[in-house]
Amino acid sequence: MAEAATLPPIAEGLFELGPPPALIGGRERATGRIVFPCPADRERFEPVRLPREGRIWSWTVQRFPPKSPPYAGPVETPFRPFALGYVELPGAVIVESRLDGFAFDELKVGLPCALRLVPFAGRLTYAFGPLDEEEDPK
After folding, report:
1. DSSP 119-136
2. Can the peptide bond before residue 74 be classed as cis, meaning omega within 30 degrees of 0?
3. Nearest Cα residue to 95 out of 47, 133, 57
4. Does a structural domain hold residue 138?
5. Distance set, CA 63 to CA 20, 40, 45, 77 (Å)
6. pLDDT in tens, the chain (138 residues)
7. pTM for this entry
8. Domain hosting residue 44, numbered range
9. In a 3-state reduction of DSSP, which class is residue 6?
10. 124 and 9 in contact (C-beta within 8 Å)?
11. 124 lies in a domain?
């Protein structure tokens, strides 16, 4: 997915291209608590690279187009269902993410997965996919 690396990020500060790519969380200086994404308050939070591998904590399949508003993204014709869920990154945080590269019938709680950067609506964003199919957009 080399062409993906040339796309602008969906939002600044969510991830680093790497290699390897990584999500950027924030560690609260006073407590050590980790959050994602990293808040802009650098006096309270320091940016930290989050683990690239995790496990699916919960998931669902979006089988119908989101309502608009509030959804303001591209409208696919025809709509294609997609998986999304929460991924537990060990020792860090649980992040919400699109799940990319999994067959819907293989999704389950506890399934190992790895960060990948993927194109979406002309921008580069993050998703989690199978460990054996990691993609690096460099």
Report:
1. EETTEEEEEEE-GGG---
2. no
3. 57
4. no
5. 32, 34, 37, 13
6. 455 568 899 889 999 987 889 999 999 999 999 999 999 999 999 999 999 999 999 999 999 877 776 666 666 667 789 999 999 999 999 999 999 999 999 999 999 999 999 998 789 999 999 997 544 443
7. 0.84
8. 2-133
9. helix
10. yes
11. yes
